[in-house]
Amino acid sequence: QLQLVESGGGLVQPGGSLRLSCAASGFALDYYAIGWFRQAPGKEREGVSCISSSGGSTNYADSVKGRFTISRDNAKNTVYLQMNSLKPEDTAVYYCAASYQPIGWYVPPIWDEYELWGQGTQVTVSS
């Protein structure tokens, strides 16, 4: 079965860092653009970042620019989200999603361009 599995979430203090991983199983990630999204308690889902299949193009929501970095290692079938200088407002469940079709490079990325989703990993930023 085709799956995306997020990992790396946890509880950190403001100013701390986490690296999230999105690992694919049952298919090769090489031909998919990948997006990261998040949903905070009581809030709507929002786009965070996305990366092209080759890794040559990326974009970020204004709220995370300069703090988060998306990358991929196709040999490991994994996409990463390095999260630095974390703030309490970054608290959310973080999801990765894959799109086989070319994405429109919306800023921030939009959820309905992605057809395969992981189950999410909780990130909590609190003192």
**Helix/strand/pairing category:** mainly beta
Mean pLDDT comes to 95
Please give the alpha-carbon distance between the first and last residues.
39 Å
Give the CA-based shape: globular
Q: Mind summarizing the main beta sheet?
A: 7 strands, mixed
Number of strands: 11
Radius of gyration: 13 Å
Total helices: the number is 0
Beta content comes to: over 45%
Uncertain runs are: none
Helix-residue proportion:
under 10%
Q: H/E series, N to C?
A: EEEEEEEEEEE
Kindly describe this structure.
The chain has 127 residues and is mostly beta strands. 0% of the residues lie in helices and 46% in strands. The protein contains no helices and eleven strands. The chain has strands at 3-7, 10-12, 18-25, 33-39, 46-51, 58-60, 68-73, 78-83, 92-99, 116-117, 121-125. The strands form two sheets. Strands 2, 4, 5, 6, 9, 10 and 11 form a seven-stranded mixed beta sheet that branches. A hairpin with a 6-residue loop joins β4 and β5 (46-51). The chain is globular and about 40 Å long. The model has no long low-confidence stretch (mean pLDDT 95).
Mind sketching the topology for me?
Layout: E1 3-7, E2 10-12, E3 18-25, E4 33-39, E5 46-51, E6 58-60, E7 68-73, E8 78-83, E9 92-99, E10 116-117, E11 121-125
Parallel strand pairs: 2-11
Antiparallel strand pairs: 1-3, 3-8, 4-5, 4-9, 5-6, 7-8, 9-10, 9-11
